[in-house]
Amino acid sequence: MKMRGRSVITYSVYSPTNVTTMLRPRRQDGQSILQEGFSIDPSVEFSEYTDLYGNPCQRAILPVGQVTITTEVQAQVNVTKPIPNPVPGYVLVGNLPDEVMHFILPSRYCQSDLPEINKLAMEIAGNFVPGYDQVEEIRKWIHQNIKYQYGVTDATTTALDILRNRIGVCRDFTHLAIALCRNLCIPARMTVGYLDKLQEMDLHAWFEVYIGGNWYAFDAVQEHTEGYRIEIAHGRDAADVAMVTQYGNATLDSLHVEVELLEAEPVS
């Protein structure tokens, strides 16, 4: 399926501000990048690097005034990877690849070692078969018990906050899911990008877990994990995958996101 994503981010900059951005798509299995664009208006010099997780990143100094960052991508993508039958099982910690180990550790927004997180994880999934069954029960519980609403959480909100307040957006749903999975020693990471099936279009966050020797996507915002996605970045939590990180005096004015499928969906 050919898919297009576009984001336009506008800032008011009050003093020259260093930024790092994570807005270009990953090149990986399941998505072939056909065309992409990245621009800053007014034009400034920028550099690029790849972070610890293989995410493409950009660095620039934004000038004083209104600055617009525009990115666009067209990609050939697969539908969200279906869960095979039989479902993938739990991988013992001793058998995890080295590069997966840090995805079972607590992180800034996903305090998987806290007693409240453990209590909820056991209530939701303690009686289910380790692996896929536990993850899907966690995903369903969050979808059914956490209210989706803009404007009630911010950049400081953690998984524990969501557990207690039961309200948030995709970022928050994902942090809670990751914390619960890691508490059960199931590696989990945060993924951000474009999704075609959203009622309110925005850059989206979901979680991936390592089960059965592979990474699988789960989306607690959706009733069922489905749709086409363009992945921009993944990491331990939102601290690793922020679209823009600024080091200076600038205010976000607006974010406009467009997503469309450029071909008709196949008839099942």
Features:
C8orf32 fold; Immunoglobulin-like; alpha+beta; about 270 residues; Transglutaminase family protein; Transglutaminase-like; Papain-like_cys_pep_sf
Outline:
It comes from Dyadobacter frigoris. This protein is α+β, with helices and mostly antiparallel strands and 268 residues long. The protein has helices at residues 115-125, 132-145, 159-165, 170-183; strands at 2-13, 17-21, 31-41, 46-50, 56-62, 65-77, 147-148, 167-168, 188-195, 204-211, 214-218, 229-235, 244-247, 250-261.
Distance between the termini: 14 Å
CATH topology of the largest domain, what is it called? C8orf32 fold
- Structural class by SSE content: alpha+beta
Report the major sheet: 4 strands, antiparallel
Secondary-structure element string? EEEEEEHHEHEHEEEEEE
Major β-sheet strand ordering: 3-6-1-14
User: How much strand content do the residues show?
Assistant: 35-45%
Rg, nearest Å = 19 Å
CATH architecture of the largest domain: Roll
